[in-house]
Design goal:
Largest sheet: 8 strands, parallel, barrel
Bound molecules: phosphoenolpyruvate
Helix content: 40-55%
Distance between the termini: 17 Å
Number of domains: 1
CATH superfamily: Aldolase class I
Order of helices and strands: EHEHEHEHHEHHEHHEHEH
Shape: globular
Oligomer: single chain
């Protein structure tokens, strides 16, 4: 049985003063939910998240990480630095990184490996664009994204990783994949893993992300292969995020 997980992705939002109420509310509210809960916040707020969330059931992490361990990579943040700040997880391959910052499948796979090497749980995002869905290549795109990581890290790496299916056309657009559309892709992701190792495929948590709201969370999370959510916009409103965690 896979335990549900809900991860908030604040994206580039927040302020030191404004974060306090949100972090405190999530900390208090999450104590009463069965799912595991994590927040991925902007780098400058990781220490604050650690201070407020330490000792609670809410884990914290970053939204990206360098594929390199250290060196002349101005502006980058290494996985070891995130671990130093008490992070337990990090998002890799978010579609905004893939499309705006040129993260290729190979770079995403290297980030995945770097995260695990530092003891962090990578949350690997995969998903197709609207044009890709409309041209019927969703399976090929998602499989290609997964295969890059399987080739670099091996299937056993999934024992300490999380996968998030995020159709790009549903992120921040208000358009949600229908529960059936999402389940179909989640099933294919699990089948891809099962082709490598059936037991690992059964225990890997696969989250759905893309305009999840309190009103649609329950039906999405009720699908056989959907083990929780990666939540963007709604994670900025404590009541909405906690309602999604409760779903
Ligand atoms: C995300 O940022 O990963 C995301 C799914 O955003 P939203 O929930 O706002 O669509």
């Amino acid at each position: 049985m896979r335990k549900s997980l809900v991860v908030g992705n604040w994206k580039m939002h927040g302020s030191l003063a404004g974060n306090v109420a949100l972090l405190e509310a999530v900390k208090a509210g999450a104590a009463g939910v069965r799912a595991d809960v994590a927040l991925c916040v902007p780098y400058p707020y990781l220490a604050q998240a650690g201070t407020v969330l330490s000792g609670s059931k809410v884990a914290w992490g970053a939204q990206d990480v360098s594929e390199y361990e250290s060196g002349a990579y101005t502006g980058e943040v290494s996985a070891a630095m995130l671990a130093d700040l008490g992070c337990s997880c990090v998002i890799v391959g978010h579609s905004e990184r893939r499309s705006f910052y040129g993260d290729t499948d190979a770079v995403v796979a290297a980030k995945f490996v770097a995260a695990q090497k530092a003891g962090l749980t990578p949350i690997l995002c995969v998903g197709e664009t609207l044009a890709e869905r409309e041209s019927g290549v969703t399976t090929a795109v998602v499989t290609r994204q997964l295969d890059a990581v399987l080739a670099a890290a091996g299937v056993s790496a999934l024992k300490s990783a999380v996968v998030a299916y995020e159709p790009v056309w549903a992120i921040g657009t208000g358009k949600t994949a229908s529960p059936q559309q999402a389940q179909e892709v989640h099933a294919l992701i699990r089948a891809r893993f099962a082709a490598e190792d059936a037991a690992i495929a059964q225990t890997t948590r696969i989250l759905y992300g893309g305009s999840v709201k309190p009103a649609n969370a329950q039906e999405l999370f009720g699908q056989t292969d959907i083990d929780g959510g990666l939540i963007g916009g709604a994670s900025l409103v404590a009541a909405d995020f906690l309602a999604i965690c409760a779903a």
